[in-house]
Amino acid sequence: MRFDDGITKIKGVGPKSEKLFKALDIDCVGALIYDFPRTYQLYPKPIKKLSGNEGKKVAVRTSLRTNVVVRHTSKMDISTTGCVIGDERLEMIWFRMPYLKSSIKVRTEYVFYGELKAVRENVWQLVQPVVFKPLEYDKLERSPQAVYSLTKGLTNKAIKKAMALCLDDIELTEEYLPADILKKRELWGYHRAMDQMHRPDDMESLTNARRRLVYDEFLKFFITKEMEGAGISAIPNRWSFPETVQYEKVLSNLPFPLTTGQKDTLEDIKKDFSSEVVSQRLLQGDVGSGKTIIAFLAMLMAVENGFQAAIMAPTEVLCRQHERTFADYIKMFDLPYDVICITGSDKGAKRKKLNERAANEGGLFIVGTHALLSDNMNYHSLAVVVTDEQHRFGVKQRKILSQKGQDPHVIVMSATPIPRTLAMILYSDMKISVIKDVPTSRLRTKNAIITKNQRSKAYDFIKKEVSGKHQAYIICPLVEASEKTEAENVTEYAGALEKYYGGEIKIGMLHGRMSPEQKDEVVGDFAEGRTDVLVSTTVVEVGVNVPNATVMLIEDANRFGLAQLHQLRGRVGRGQWQSFCMFVDASEDEESSERLKILAQSNDGFFIASEDLRLRGPGDFYGIRQSGDMDFKLADIYQDADVMREASADAKEITAADPQLKSEESRKIAGYLKKMDTVVYSNL
């Protein structure tokens, strides 16, 4: 079996299964083995006492004294049995599993695994527990079990089976890293790492496997960056913006004072625009720090001088929002300019007219998605490009614009609070400005850490806010080790919420398996107030501005990194009203709870990101990848900061010694990069 073989080469995967795998963007063997688990299930040690474990997933090791009894009803078969643990009785019940009567033997030891529920005093119950033989469970207890993202009709068991067949048979890509790097960085071999990533023997093996594959991703990123970026930072600046009348008029008539950080950033940008070479600047600003007005003012400098300026956003909804904001500014300050919006959904005569304006008209604000980079787009005089929350706009995209004859100044805006030391590594080809202060008019979001038992109070609080004409977000990650798909989990949660509210509140649903058009429609409905509560996975992290949203409830908050929780919290607190964020702590781990307290006590994203880095140990990683930056499949810039530094240094050394990757060792690296681009990362 080869890396680029179709998925049907795997035994047991036919046309029907092929469609299901393709729904997960898995169309070949290589894409399958790079479909890393979303989390791992750790089976607990069997307990010897039932009390004190209510609501927990537990394992009970015991033998039965009585046979399983099957009761036949009109709807289903119900199988029951029971045993005594110490002085407590444990009842077990299964639905639609009558075969257990013959497969579970009395006076034979088994391990029963499931969620423990209290029935009455000294009587407990396991509903639908999984049954293991002791030796089988002992192995599971030692080995973290991979849990994959699913689609309806495709189970975790089916993915694990296909994965095992691949790993046992596939001709994986040969080891491409030089031996001296493997030794210096104490990295595992590629084959061993890939196998243990999917089938780890223990946590130590999983940590080592993941470290190697994270290194691969970072090295790919930095080598590509070094090779594509050669010479791009030295492009002569042919733009000049001497006219400042309109710029000064807007600046002196703003309805709010600029913060110190905003003023300093504007000065940085003005110096860039008058420098000898075209600039690339990263503008970091925490949520609510006022990056949009800075973008508008920077673009105005170009537009006032007869040139074009564009801002690119990741979604059409966000583009339309920028279009309205810029149009409002133009009207507010009586500016003699137009703003046009270009997205992938613009077709036919409308798109043709927009393209013609971009190709022939100067003094124009242009708002758009990545449609601005399409082959049929040409520009009259594109002098400044701002990208909003879009990390895919890198060296390659700047080259596309350069090839169109523009060589614009580039400003990349990010609300991701990356500590400066990491930002200097990730964006080594860019200058960096940071807006740390937030306008004083912004009310600080109030935070609370709550338990699962306080969830109903949180729902009642949300209802109170909605009755006051406000809106709320609820973030619900997939339940650990669940066989539910992302869509099923969100749908089930939203259904339970509708039942709780008795249909009085309009609820929307958002998850990652939706198409971009579906996501835009759902977010648009929420932004326009057609839904009151949006139940979502973390895809809402970077999204539309909804000032009316005043509450966020984050389920299983302990499963996220602090930096991502802060990003999620930033969806509220964007209007004039007091906002609230509630973190549901489902963990009984004291250290995890302490981490959440840092978040509850601070709204400073840069402080939180630094604390997140400080608290991470070298073996720490969470079931949910912490940041969505840079389109990595596995690597995380926060929890893998040490590996990122190593890979960055090695990439510089490799490309400095062999810029074209022509040597035998370098050709192996180049081959790996090409294979990853065409097979693994093509859908990102």
Structural commentary:
The structure is a single chain. This protein has 684 residues and is an alpha/beta fold. The chain is 39% helix and 18% strand. It contains 23 helices and 22 strands. The strands form four sheets. Strands 2, 3, 4, 5, 6, 7 and 8 form a seven-stranded mixed beta sheet that branches. The longest helix is centred in the N-terminal third of the chain and has 26 residues, at 203-228. The radius of gyration is 28 Å and the shape is globular. The model is unreliable at 622-629 (pLDDT under 50).
List the helices and strands and how they pair.
Layout: H1 15-22, H2 29-33, E1 39-41, E2 57-63, E3 69-72, E4 77-85, E5 88-95, H3 100-103, E6 109-120, E7 123-127, E8 130-132, H4 134-142, E9 145-147, H5 156-169, H6 179-184, H7 190-198, H8 203-228, H9 245-252, H10 260-273, E10 280-285, H11 291-304, E11 308-312, H12 316-332, E12 338-342, H13 348-360, E13 364-368, E14 382-388, H14 395-403, E15 409-414, H15 420-426, E16 431-435, E17 446-450, H16 455-467, E18 471-475, H17 486-501, E19 507-510, H18 516-527, E20 533-536, E21 549-554, H19 562-569, E22 580-584, H20 590-601, H21 605-615, H22 641-657, H23 664-680
Parallel strand pairs: 5-7, 10-15, 10-16, 11-13, 11-14, 12-13, 14-15, 17-22, 18-20, 18-21, 19-20, 21-22
Antiparallel strand pairs: 1-9, 2-6, 3-4, 4-5, 6-7, 6-8
Helix pairs in contact: 7-8, 8-22, 9-11, 10-11, 19-21
What descriptive keywords fit this protein?
globular; 23 helices; 684 residues; 22 strands; seven-stranded mixed β-sheet; seven-stranded parallel β-sheet; alpha/beta
